[in-house]
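User: Structure please.
Assistant: Input sequence and predicted structure:
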Amino acid sequence: MTQMQTILMPDKFQNAEQMWFWFLYSKSLQNTVTRAKNTSSNKKICELVDVETLVTKLYLCGKLTDEQIMVMKEYGDKRRAPHQYIWRENHDAAVWRNAMDVINTAAQDKGWIE
């Protein structure tokens, strides 16, 4: 009798914001931890290099601006999006939303976002 093996489907992201935070967090772990074996059962639909390549391509073809990349990095490091109702973050919130819309569209085309 053969034993049935369960195949886990990789998890898709809910949106570009979730994907971006996952990318930055995982990248920071990769930089601080020496190749720890991933024992998580929650495999993602793409690899870190895939997200990095996607964002780089969007930047190089002019769909993401320098300002958007800087805002994405700044708030990604804070692990939160800028808040539109905080006066000093209002402009950054608009920049963030536009960048996330661009990334969301591109990631959906690749099948990474639900």
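The chain has four helices and no strands.
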